[in-house]
């Protein structure tokens, strides 16, 4: 079996929002939840924001420290991960024909979820096994992350088929907690702890259950979007991600490549070479940033096209319209109208 792919460093901020709200509901303050994460509270209101995996881990470390290692705390947190919190990934699963096809698609694009465990599905005889691989997870958070990821996975199943997963057997690598009742309530069985792997076992026949929202065309469209989102997110990691963040920090006055290279204490040739090594270019990143900012201003504000063009650094609105149409295939006016109708 190949080694699990490392989790990408960039993740949707939705999970941070859910975990922060969980902390607030447990009586913590916003400052206690976000201490040491480097996260701004304003991020919590932006559904399209992204964070580093290390920032989310620090948030959960804050929760564990402030609330103590209560038995089942991660299980309660995981119940907040409903299918509708996963965006297009969740819609792709809902549009799948069977539970098997939904599970296979979901695992193909697991990096679009909020899980920290790698996962795989195995089938043998009349059993199906969901395995959670905890490679490289911080030791002080292993129990909390396992609880959260198992509970979140079962929550997704519940929303898909509108029923609990009939678990035959469960075993986990963590030490047995002081109270296993929260686990028994979630799974319907008492798990075995101190095992050699993390595994939830259920009847293989369940994989062939048809899903009520099956639509092959919608599922295909959603998978294409999942693929595009994942490609963009991976491109934002590493050096390209650093350049993109620097560009986003200064909308309306985007620095040219020469100036940005000077700020990074390198030549423009080195900057160009490092971006090419990650299969992108300065111009691509610049246009991606301008396109994302333009979309946000068109959708979330009542600014005129002239005002938007000016904010993005265009001296002439016609140049902005031409560029936007090249990026998105429609004019800014058509894009705004289509979003309002949707």
Task: Characterise the protein shown here.
This protein has 342 residues and is of the alpha+beta class. 52% of the residues lie in helices and 10% in strands. It is built from 16 helices and 7 strands. Strands 3-4-7-5-6 form a 5-stranded mixed β-sheet, with helices on one face. Strands 1-2 form a two-stranded antiparallel sheet. Helix 13 crosses helix 16 and helix 14 crosses helix 15. The relative contact order is 0.09. The N terminus is likely disordered.
Topology readout:
Elements: E1 10-12, H1 14-25, H2 30-34, E2 50-52, H3 53-67, H4 73-78, H5 88-94, H6 99-108, E3 118-124, E4 127-133, H7 142-161, E5 167-172, H8 181-187, E6 192-193, E7 198-203, H9 216-236, H10 238-248, H11 257-263, H12 268-277, H13 282-300, H14 305-311, H15 317-328, H16 332-341
Helix pairs in contact: 1-3, 5-6, 5-9, 10-13, 13-16, 14-15
